[in-house]
Give the backbone structure.
Amino acid sequence: MKKQVVVIGLGRFGSSVCRELYALGHEVLAIDQDVEKVDAVNDFSSQASVANATDEKDLKSLGVRNFQHAIIAIGDDLQASVLCTLMVKDLGVEKVWVKARDLQHQKILEKVGADRVIQPENEMGIRVAHHVDSEKIVDYIELSKDFSILELAATKKVINRSLEELSIRANYNCVVLAIKQDEHVNIAPVQEDVVKEGDVLIVMGHREDLKRFEDKGL
Ligand code: ATP
Ligand code: ATP
Ligand code: CA
């Protein structure tokens, strides 16, 4: 479904969100106070405008209130980021997601009504650490503090064995959600499915159970 999204702040993070959403077919209004930043996304947004994110008149005249979703990506100017979040929320935008520099910034944004706060450097750092920790981990999605989804490369230990033989749920309390082989994804694996060389298992569970599976089961 096509969404109307406003992206405010077109640094590295904001401009990449803007370009990707536009490429995915969504309507994207891009805003920055810097004309060069605005020009850079002109061909990669539905509309790109120079405006001050902390000026309510600017936000109103651009029709920000009509958008369902806002991404605010102003990292360095804490005051501008907080003020803009408050105003966009006040204008009635349903989902306001905001980039934060650090935990203190995150806490303030949550207090003023941000629906989701993202710390890209921190989150990417954690992700990279998990990749270094285990070469078996292809990718990693954190569902909550304790639960995650891991993409794990099949090892010799599991290749040519069926899910029934492996009993991953019984032994490790983890669920195999899907099995990937290059571009092909088996989204509803059954007990009889056999793990093949080059497969990637997409497994959900408690982080301790996942760790146990990764260490002992693979
Ligand atoms: P990056 O994603 O590159 O790390 P950042 O989080 O470090 O970015 P900044 O570089 O501080 O964030 O700002 C991002 C963008 O927001 C910049 O292009 C800047 O011009 C814009 N910006 C900052 N304050 C305002 C404002 N009050 N109104 C409009 N745009 C603003
Ligand atoms: P962030 O992940 O916070 O966005 P960044 O990519 O913007 O960081 P910098 O802040 O420029 O990168 O640098 C990251 C760290 O690297 C800093 O703590 C800095 O002190 C350190 N650093 C930079 N240059 C050197 C150097 N020549 N030798 C050792 N440490 C360095
Ligand atoms: Ca930055």
